[in-house]
Amino acid sequence: IKIYTLIGELVWEEQFSVGAPESEAGFHEEVMWDGRNDAGEIVRNGVYVCKIETDHGSAMTKIAVAK
């Protein structure tokens, strides 16, 4: 999972593996993003793009951050 600004700057990235110890039967049904970037800083209000990639394809959606 990667989260980008609307101009394409990477904000946050997290990788998950099938069969990871924290996963149930190797699948993640819900992922929570705490609104912080990879440096641990709270991101600004705005719209971000979330990209999910798997071996079987990818999907993108927009996320709005409003505090």
Average pLDDT rating? 87
Question: Helix/strand/pairing class, anyone?
Answer: mainly beta
Radius of gyration equals: 13 Å
The run of helices and strands is EEEE
Q: Quickly count the domains.
A: 1
Strand portion, in percent? Answer: 35-45%
The main sheet orders its strands as 2-1-3-4
Number of helices: 0
Contiguous runs where pLDDT drops below 50 for at least 5 residues: none
**What spatial form do the alpha-carbon principal axes imply?**
globular
Say how many strands there are.
4
Protein name: FlgD Ig-like domain-containing protein
Strand and helix map with partners:
Blueprint: E1 2-5, E2 10-13, E3 46-54, E4 57-65
Antiparallel strand pairs: 1-2, 1-3, 3-4
Describe the structure using short key phrases.
mainly beta, four-stranded antiparallel sheet, 67 residues
Structure description:
- The protein has 67 residues and is mainly beta.
- The protein has one domain (2-65).
- Helix content is 0%, strand content 39%.
- The protein is built from no helices and four strands.
- A four-stranded antiparallel β-sheet has the order 2-1-3-4, with no helix packed on it.
- The protein is globular.
- It comes from candidate division TA06 bacterium DG_26.
- This is FlgD Ig-like domain-containing protein.
